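Bench notes, afternoon.
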Amino acid sequence: MKRCIHFFVIALLIFVLAACSKPGSQQTASTKNEAASSNGGDDAAAEELQPEEGAELVIWGNGEAEGEWMKSVAEQFTEKYDVPVSFEEVAHGDAAKKLETDGPAGLGGDVFMAPHDRVGQMTTAGLIYDNYYASEYKERLIDGVAEAVSSLNEEGEQKMYGFPLAIETVAMAYNKDLLDKMGFKPAETMDELIEQSKEFMAQNPGTYGFMLEPGNFYGNYSFIGGYEGYIFGENNTNPEDIGLNKEPALKAAELLEKIRDEILPLKKEDLTADVINSYFNEGKQLYTMEGSWGVNGRIDAGINLGVTVMPKLENGKVPTTFLGVKGLYVNSYSKYPKAATLFAKFATSDEMLLKFFEQTGNLPPTKALLENEKLKSDKLKMPFIEQAEHTVPMPNIPAMDSVWGGMDAALTAIWNNDEESKPALDKGVQQIQEAINSQTK
């Protein structure tokens, strides 16, 4: 009899724990939002959710065009599900930090927009639920996107958390009028870009062929990646293995030194983003690395703009730029997680994502929309989609925050002081390791 009671208690506990993994039961510092399926996260047979009785939602998102889009989505969601939705403008870069205090206090948005590089911190803090429809999204999304919004949960399992809205990356922008005047075609290799720059500068004193920020690791990682380097081991999840002082990083440093010596003999302090933007927007620069988010600003400046994938390195590979993913996340402190999950899914349907692209210019993350004629005919957007095939998701583990300062210091020492690459990068990696260690104490 005692044994029967013992087994009954165990079975009851298992049932309760399984129920808690569905959206709908509040958990403290937990991120589970799985389908109740035997394989623990494959949602192929996940039940369709229904909003909680009396549910009402608050959504956090960017303002301006993105905010107008979100308000439109909210209206349509309310019409379909009879769930009132209010919108609050919270910049997507600020939302994760704000949720650290507002979430536990019950003041956070039920669904909020955030960049994917905050996922690791948000899961560690237990701020977000995982994606209830993960398998469906993994089928829909282009390569790298599901990986970008995934992280290890509290059990050490890799889970997908976000509902992706848009992707972004960097490609090579150029002034079409200047290239035409010089009789150039867009450079296909970095060596060709350097040679074009020399010729352009010789004929046009006071101009530059190509400018970059020497200490800006966001852009300059592309060369390390193109030489098949990495930041962290195990697919950018192991902060104990830092690859930024290995052979690919040394080759990238050599390329930066070549750019400095042959076409850009300025100190880092004279190569700020403002200086580079001014030269390009005033028609005094052939090429610049540009993010997909910056195209409209160039057009507004009156530049006859062209965009191409990053010119190849001497190894024949396209530089590997960072992939960024803007997504929606479900607040784990939400009183209405089912309704919130439904909203995130509704907002990231292909229908809504196409409207997001049309209204804001954000690049869609799904395979189906890459075949959309409106996108395929956009000559300024498609090169970023092509470049996305040569990207790696920016690491989203908390240790990534420690990388920027160390690499800025290392690249600046190489560029400004002509320090030998290996010792400079060794120092940078040591600085990164020390910063990571201080995080974990």
